[in-house]
Amino acid sequence: MISYSLFDNTFLRFIFVGIFNTLVGMAIMVVLYNLVGFGYWLSSAINYILTSILSFFLNKYFTFGVKTWSFKMIVLFILTIMISYLVSYGIAKPLVHYLFVDYTSKFCDNVAMLAGMCLFTVLNYIGQRFTFNSTKYYK
């Protein structure tokens, strides 16, 4: 049976992994956007591709303590990342540009990337709880 308590020990481990991943990801995104000159979508996408690989292993073993492997787990993980990413960044950019209409596009994009990261964390946690817990019971 799947646990419906969202805020248990796994939540604290997920936050710890998330803080580490966020620091690495923000560094990647800021460097790619501000120094390399990649756009909003490319910078954030590269960040999530790279940090999602790290996140999969850290959350699988450390956060949720899953020792088994299944194709379903990998597919659910990828779908959760993709949906969380598209929803988070798809909402963040237009919202921030609307709220900060008098600011430069570069400023708004940087704020939107930060806002997108926050929203992504919430959506991803909920999705990963389901992903790693469901694969324990539904192989």
Structural write-up:
- With 139 residues, the chain is mainly α.
- The chain has one domain (9-137).
- Helices cover 82% and strands 0% of the residues.
- The protein has helices at residues 9-36, 40-63, 71-99, 105-137.
Secondary-structure map:
Blueprint: H1 9-36, H2 40-63, H3 71-99, H4 105-137
Profile the largest sheet. none
**Radius of gyration from CA coordinates:** 16 Å
Shape: elongated
Number of helices: 4
Strand content: under 5%
**Strand-and-helix sequence, N→C?**
HHHH
Percent helix, as a range, is over 70%
Specify the structural class: mainly alpha
Structure summary:
The chain is elongated and about 50 Å long. The protein is built from four helices and no strands.
Main attributes of the structure:
mainly alpha; 4 helices; 139 residues; 0% strand
